[in-house]
Amino acid sequence: MTISSEAVEALKEEIWKRAREKADKILNDARNEAERILRNAKAEAENFVKNKLEPEKLIMRRRIIGKAMMDGRRLLILTRNDLINEVFSKAVEKLKRFRESEEYEKFLVKCLKEAVEAMNPSDGDEFIVYVDKRDLELLKKKVGEIFKHNLKFKFKEGSFMGGVVVMDSKGKRIFYNTIESRLESLRPLLREKIASMLFREVEVDGEDR
Amino acid sequence: MSLSSLLVEEKKAMLFVEEARKKAEEILKEAKAEAERILKEVSNEEKIKEILEQYEEELRREAERIIEKYRREAERVRSVPEELLEKASDIIVKEVVDHKFRSG
């Protein structure tokens, strides 16, 4: 049997066409499979990292960054507190000198009046008034001009920056109206007021820079 | 040209396919080895320790930046002008002197 050379060539081409197709398919399949294997491995690795490393990283972050934030805030709070305390110290010095001013007498009278009136006095009531010894004579002299009711006062020496402490004669009610007690009563409100004044203005300055 | 030459050609083509098959096996072998390396790397205790140590270093640097930010803020707070402190203390004095208390 003889085959023409054209037929042989055609057959050869067909043999190689099929072989190439087969080889291409084998290689493509292998590449796809390789990609799938690597994709799966990466996903598995990511899962492992997510499940094992991420929780540990989160704990570490909370510990280290959390502490830094806390330390930083504490530093800021302490600095602000120091500054507010400095302002209060300055105020105390000024309050100590306040007794030397002209307004002090008026203030002292106001303190006594406020304290006595807070106890709803009536005629004949007796009160014990504690007053700094530097104010004793002044207040004794003034007390008769202050009240409409006929009240009795016993004066005792105290030791404070200024103002008075008034107690009813039975010792049941007591009204602290000294400079110190007024300062302490107002301290929480004043702290807020001063803080907002100091730090708001600082922030505004900061924004301007 | 004869049938025998076709057989030779057929054999060559088979070898060609066989080569491709070997190459495919090589590709798969490399992929499996790479996959194994990836998985080994993440599950390796030493590697995990190293990753965590590196992360801790990063966190420490970040923490230092945070603290530094607060230090600067504290410095800015401390730089309040003296007049403002005086003004604030005057406000305290005024409140203490002028405030009206209603009861003990």
Q: Could you say how many structural domains of chain A there are in total?
A: 2
Query: Biggest sheet of chain B, open or closed, and with what strands and sense?
Result: none
Strand content of chain B: under 5%
The order of strands across the largest sheet of chain A is 2-1-3-4
Round the Cα radius of gyration of chain A to an integer and report it. 45 Å
Number of domains of chain B: 2
Q: Calculate the mean pLDDT score of chain B and round it.
A: 92
Which spans of chain B of ≥5 residues are poorly predicted at pLDDT below 50? none
Show the largest interface. A-B, 86 and 71 residues
Tell me what the structure shows.
The complex is a heterodimer of chains A (209) and B (104). Chain A is α+β, with helices and mostly antiparallel strands. Chain A is 72% helix and 12% strand. Chain A folds into two domains: 1-98; 103-185, ATP synthase, E subunit, C-terminal (hypothetical protein PF0899 fold, 2-Layer Sandwich), CATH 3.30.2320. Chain A is built from four helices and four strands. Chain B has three helices and no strands. Chain B has helices at 3-43, 45-78, 82-98. The longest helix of chain B has 41 residues, at 3-43. The N and C termini of chain B lie far apart (128 Å). Classes of the chains: A alpha+beta (209), B mainly alpha (104).
